[in-house]
Design brief:
about 700 residues; alpha+beta; 5-stranded antiparallel sheet; 4-stranded mixed sheet; 17 strands; about 10% strand
Length: about 700
């Protein structure tokens, strides 16, 4: 966006200015139902000590959500609270009645634009908390009609601004000097207005172009009142609506915590720096710089980003930028946020994700962030594995670990319910699912069984569903899970944690059989992950294989190797015998092929797996042999070799007795071989675990 920049005017303010009664602030009024709101904006917050991340401040006014303090503040103000409730309920009911009337009289299409505008203005007038609801809806083309989407998208950066005089006053109060003394240039009007503040484009005296975000006046008051009203509603619903078992109060408290953090721009600056440290190195991800010298609780100065929204497809196409690719970049970044480090952007609406001029994905607005604990991250990956395996008993146990179900919940009726729901949803491929379909399917059993939605999960779903909404807007056929699976495959192959080692075992083994097709699929998908380190994966695989925890896999690997070597040796013997038969002209029966079609398919798959490994970037045969050498002298390796040699020798000896030393008698016609002239023989008890078993002189196995 091209903007004309001018030096800011010198504005003189009276020190006793009362923000709560300032005129002209509608539709973000600091008066509720025409009653002035003059409460102490910090009385519902507690002090916090900022983390040291380069921010040189110690602000006693830093906000921290405290539901007890908010309840005490508004609990004895019933007229104010009921006035706000009416102010929220009346316009929403009026809008709902208008939509119902349009449907009844067949005027939906005729009045759709009018109703969409009404919805946008209603949410705008209701304030920041409801604007955020509208922003979330604006990313869901699968839920909201196109005209409504168009109007709700304006809530991202086209909200009514507040007067410049107030913005300049906040700058002076936070940074200690007039804007003209701090910035070399600043736009005469805000270039964007969001739910919590508005943005000016400016330039520092050192030459850097910056975005200057200034918070809306009286924000803590209006947000605190709305949070209180919504929290009281959550308490009422939780007590009176038995079908709702989720902890709505905890979810509301989580939302309140993030909102209050978002109202503290110092905290947002810390979040931005932490986000850059964790994810700024990822390919085609860009995080703007924070200028701490020009940042306070209500003013944030950060690097200016010239960019285009991902939903503006024609503009991106004109610039030669692939929006679909950037969505994939965003999906990969989100997976690392949720499943690797746990620190994630909880508000990735289109206004906060820009395509830069050089084709990178820039993240903006780090006010609403949240965290996923390690056990929750592993639990989510394990749930994906159990879903892929259709292991619904394991999936039910995952829901207990993830706090959807209490430990004492009887899982017996839940397991078949999950099987019924997800078997229908999965269809041909897990990759064809999207997050909305998963949540829709889950909702079918949420009310029937004692599920509850944990507070942390609500923000995760909000983040993923918002991102998926952007993706669907860019490409209606975009499948988030199909793009996510390479990352999950990489984690399963390279993460050394016991939780994921167990998940990998569950994925690769079924009823004691090794599933080579799963390994091939994992390696093929992991290869598509940009940061997949094959060398690291091989190291960890070898270390795990020869550890105490890898004994199960070693035993199964020995069985597979013995089978394969036996089949290969037998096939080689048969081939040599065939050549000899032809050479001497012997017309006897040809030997039965040793390798079945199933064995042949397995061998072909192993060859493909080795080819995938060789083609994976970073693989070097010499280095692989060098890494393997230290493991060859381990006692576990020697025991494996002895076991392979012993089992293989037993198989070969048994086959030698069966096929060379034994003359097979004619069949008696019923498919069984008869031995009319052979005396019966008893095997000694020592060979039959103490049992006496009578066999013919020689046992014939067919």
């Amino acid at each position: 966006m091209d903007t004309k920049t001018v030096s800011p005017p010198s504005v003189k303010f009276q020190p006793d200015t009362v923000l709560e009664q300032s005129p002209g602030l509608s539709p973000f009024p600091e008066r509720v139902n025409n009653l002035p709101v003059t409460v102490d904006i910090d009385s519902a917050a507690t002090e916090r000590v900022p983390l040291k991340s380069g921010a040189p401040y110690s602000d006693s006014n830093a906000l921290l959500y405290d539901p007890v303090a908010i309840t005490e503040l508004y609990g004895d103000r019933p007229f104010l609270v009921w006035g706000r409730r009416f102010a929220i309920l009346w316009p929403l009911l009026t809008l709902a009645f208008g939509i119902w009337r349009d449907k009844k009289w067949g005027r939906v299409k005729q009045n759709e634009r009018k109703r969409a505008v009404k919805l946008r203005t209603t949410l705008t007038n209701l304030g920041p908390a409801f604007i955020k609801v509208g922003q979330a809806l604006s990313t869901r083309p699968d839920l909201v009609p196109p005209l409504y989407l168009e109007e709700l998208a304006k809530l991202q950066d086209q909200l009514p601004p507040f007067p410049n005089e107030l913005a300049y006053q906040f700058i002076e109060e936070e940074l200690g000097d007039r804007p003209s003394a701090i910035y070399a240039e600043i736009t005469p009007d805000p270039v964007a207005a969001a739910s919590l503040g508005q943005v000016y484009k400016g330039k520092l005296k050192t030459g850097e172009t910056v975005a200057i975000k200034v918070q809306r006046p009286g924000l803590a008051e209006s947000m605190g009142l709305d949070v209180y009203v919504l929290r009281q509603l959550a308490i009422w619903v939780q007590k009176n609506v038995k079908q709702v078992r989720s902890d709505l109060v905890a979810i509301m408290d989580e939302f309140g915590t993030r909102i209050y953090e978002e109202m503290d721009y110092n905290k947002e600056g810390e979040n931005a720096e932490r986000f850059a440290q964790l994810y700024g190195h990822l390919k085609d991800i860009y995080v703007p710089k924070i200028y701490w010298k020009y940042t306070g609780r209500r003013v944030l100065t950060m690097e200016w980003i010239n960019g285009t929204k991902l939903t503006q497809i024609p503009a991106l196409t004109a610039q030669g930028i692939d929006a679909k690719y950037l969505i994939e970049v965003g999906v990969q970044c989100s997976l690392r946020q949720l499943l690797e480090h746990g620190f994630f952007h909880a508000d990735p609406h289109p206004g906060n994700l820009l395509a830069t001029e050089d084709g990178k994905l820039a993240y903006l607005d780090f006010g609403m962030m949240s965290e996923v604990k390690p056990y929750q991250r592993y639990g989510l990956i394990q749930a994906v594995v159990h879903l892929v395996n259709r292991d619904f008993e394991g999936l039910a146990k995952d829901y207990v670990k993830l706090e959807f179900l209490t430990p004492e919940t009887d899982l017996t009726p839940i397991i078949p319910a999950l099987a019924n729901v997800f078997n229908n949803a999965l269809g041909a491929s897990v990759a064809e699912l999207n997050f909305k379909s998963i949540t829709d399917q889950l909702s079918e059993i949420m009310y029937e069984y004692p599920f509850r939605v944990p507070a942390y999960y609500a923000l995760i779903i909000r983040s993923l569903v918002t991102l998926e909404g952007i993706a669907i807007n860019v490409d209606p056929n975009f499948k988030v899970l199909s793009k996510a699976y390479p990352y999950v495959a990489k984690r399963l192959l390279t993460d050394p944690s016991p939780e994921l080692r167990g998940s990998l075992r569950d994925l690769l083994f079924k009823d004691g059989d090794f599933r080579w097709n799963r390994l091939e699929n994992l390696l093929r998908n992991a290869r598509e992950s940009d940061d997949y380190d094959l060398s690291q994966g091989l190291n960890q695989a070898l270390e795990f294989l020869f550890s105490e925890r890898g004994e199960f896999i070693r035993d199964r690997l020995v069985e597979e190797l013995v089978k394969s070597l036996d089949h290969l040796s037998r096939d080689a013997f048969n081939n040599a015998t065939s050549v000899l038969r032809e050479w001497v002209g012997w017309k006897g029966n040809k030997p039965t092929p040793a390798i079945t079609s199933g064995d042949q398919e397995k061998m072909e798959r192993i060859k493909r797996i080795w080819a995938i490994v060789q083609e994976t970037p970073g693989f070097n045969t010499a280095e692989f042999v060098q890494k393997l050498a230290p493991f060859l002298i381990k006692p576990e390796t020697q025991r494996m070799g002895q076991k392979i040699a012993g089992d293989l020798a037993q198989r070969m000896l048994a086959r030698l007795i069966r096929e060379v030393l034994i003359q097979e008698e004619p069949s008696n016609g019923n498919g069984k071989t008869s031995y009319p002239n052979r005396p019966q023989q008893q095997l000694p008890p020592s060979r039959t675990n103490g049992k006496v078993i009578t066999y013919p002189n020689v046992t014939v196995r067919k």
